[in-house]
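Milestone M4 deliverable, item 7.
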Amino acid sequence: MNRRTLVNALLVLAVIALFAVPLLLDGGASGYGGTDAAVTEDLEADGYTPWFESVFSPAGEVESGLFALQAALGGGVLGYVLGRLRGRRTATSASTPAADPR
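Output delivered:
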């Protein structure tokens, strides 16, 4: 494993730790709530019962942080794929000989 790979792996672990540590330390004790929680309370007040329980339910701010992480990862994957496709097209057009103008 070279130095560049090690640095990249450590950066990825650091980003994951930035989201995982508050999630583990908070334990759902924060008082912040989002619109999802408000709608759920209103629906349950009207007599609606959910079909199943969530496996994991983080606190509101942690939940929005996880959503931001998901959006960032999706944007990264999209950017990587688009970059690879553009690079492939550039490499293909560079390898084909130019047409003779005569």
